[in-house]
């Protein structure tokens, strides 16, 4: 029964065992031992090459080492190549602060990858089954997972240069244990599977029995639901990428800027996935503190805030709204304060990508626009300073009495928030602002008939 059910499941996914080279993750428990036995049984008829890979996480001392020796002995009896690794997970937990499950999983998969590379086997078979699928989906929905995470465990997925596949997702735990009895397998039992401190075990002992009483075939419905969610999500993700390519004004390693108007033209399901796409791109490893609440905060700022706003996300990611643009960038990437002293003719390359050219000459300048400024050189106190803005900066404006805050000038010209901190400010030796390139000129600027030498500044973006 199990054999035909698994083969039908593989066929439904257009997955053939023929001529496959497979690393099998084997803990020694009922599920993984049954999987190893199943694949070993198809070794000749399907021309399979298999290697068993076992990890001793060193949680249970001699007991877990005995598990490893059990798997090793079984493989020797059946002439199956065997690889194992002893990894001190408690020590890794202490060093990294990771939970036992996260640390064990990461190290286990690293070892599986090593074995796949050693043998040049492109497939990794794991023994997750239908009951695992139900538990995983319910746990993730309870935690508030979104997108593809809600779909639970995929039948197959890419893994480094190869692929993971799970042929037992169509089976229940009971079917696997029955298979072990029929094949006279005596698997090892991990006592931690019975402890209520793990949320998965609570779902297993309390929720799963209730669902199975309602419908003994509930695992099949969850599996179909999982596959529907995965295929729908893949399609929506593809549409999201296509639309986001039209929405993103800037895409850099640590910074993304989107056009809010174009973003709002996208259907709402794509908007949500678009924000997830941005966060996945910027966060190489998503912080555990990031949740659906953060997504809602972004949407609230897009739909309900004024022309500007700012959110501080985990790991110093800033989400900044400035008029019709919204930027996602890390503080380290935005911290580009600069200060240059200029004592004569020169060209200053600025961290924001622009440059300012300084020229002293005796002729009246030919170029005269908002990106150039002209001064009577005799009235300028040196050195000039080209810097980023400072708190309280004000400047006197040409044609106006009094002074005006730089902050208000930026607002008047709708300069995006993320650009204000890197916008060049030019002062003289008295720290008086004489020019805000591209925006405003001071009362000192202009052609002076009494000048014998001119200072010309030219800003190039």
UniProtKB/TrEMBL annotation:
It comes from the Bacteria. Gene3D superfamilies: 3.30.465.60, HUPs. Its EC number is 6.3.4.19. Residues 384-457 form the Lysidine-tRNA(Ile) synthetase C-terminal domain. It is found in: Cytoplasm. Ligates lysine onto the cytidine present at position 34 of the AUA codon-specific tRNA(Ile) that contains the anticodon CAU, in an ATP-dependent manner. Cytidine is converted to lysidine, thus changing the amino acid specificity of the tRNA from methionine to isoleucine. Belongs to the tRNA(Ile)-lysidine synthase family. This is tRNA(Ile)-lysidine synthase. It comes from Bacillus xiapuensis.
């Amino acid at each position: 029964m199990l054999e035909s059910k698994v083969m039908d499941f593989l066929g439904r996914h257009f997955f053939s065992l023929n001529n496959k080279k497979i690393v099998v993750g084997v803990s020694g428990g009922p599920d993984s031992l049954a999987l190893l036995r199943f694949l070993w049984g198809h070794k000749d008829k399907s021309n399979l090459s298999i290697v068993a890979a076992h990890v001793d996480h060193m949680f249970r001392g001699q007991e877990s080492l005995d598990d490893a020796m059990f798997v090793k002995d079984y493989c020797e009896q059946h002439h199956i190549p065997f690889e194992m690794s002893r990894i001190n997970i408690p020590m890794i937990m202490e060093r990294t602060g990771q939970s036992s499950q996260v640390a064990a999983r990461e190290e286990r998969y690293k070892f599986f990858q090593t074995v796949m590379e050693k043998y040049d086997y492109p497939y990794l078979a794991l023994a997750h089954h239908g009951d695992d699928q139900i538990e995983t989906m319910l746990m993730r929905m309870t935690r508030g997972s979104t997108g593809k995470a809600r779909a639970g465990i995929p039948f197959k997925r890419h893994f480094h240069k190869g692929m993971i596949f799970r042929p037992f997702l169509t089976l229940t735990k009971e079917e696997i244990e029955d298979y072990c009895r029929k094949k006279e397998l005596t698997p090892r039992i991990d006592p931690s599977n019975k402890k209520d401190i793990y949320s998965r075990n609570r779902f297993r002992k309390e929720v799963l029995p209730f669902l199975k009483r309602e419908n003994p075939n509930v695992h099949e419905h969850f599996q179909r639901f999982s596959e529907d969610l995965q295929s729908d999500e893949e399609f929506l993700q593809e549409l999201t990428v296509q639309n986001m390519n039209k929405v993103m004004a800037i895409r850099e390693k640590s910074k993304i800027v989107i056009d809010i108007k174009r973003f709002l033209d996208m259907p709402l399901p794509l908007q949500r996935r678009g924000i997830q796409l941005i966060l996945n791109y910027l966060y190489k490893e998503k912080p555990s503190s990031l949740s659906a609440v953060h997504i809602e905060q972004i949407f609230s700022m897009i739909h309900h805030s004024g022309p500007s706003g700012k959110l501080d996300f985990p790991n110093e990611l800033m989400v900044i709204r400035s008029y019709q643009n919204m930027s996602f960038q890390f503080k380290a990437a935005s911290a580009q304060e600069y200060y240059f002293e200029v004592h004569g003719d020169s060209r200053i390359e600025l961290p924001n990508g622009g440059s300012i050219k300084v020229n002293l000459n005796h002729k009246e300048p030919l170029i005269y626009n908002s990106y150039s400024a002209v001064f009577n050189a005799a009235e300028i106190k040196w050195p000039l300073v080209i810097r980023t803005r400072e708190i309280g900066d004000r400047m006197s404006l040409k044609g106006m009495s009094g002074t005006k805050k730089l902050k208000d000038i930026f607002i008047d010209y709708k300069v995006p928030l993320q650009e204000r901190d890197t916008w060049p400010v030019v002062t003289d030796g008295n720290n008086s602002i004489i020019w805000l390139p591209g925006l405003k000129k001071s009362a000192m600027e202009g052609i002076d008939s009494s000048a014998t030498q001119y200072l010309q500044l030219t800003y190039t973006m």
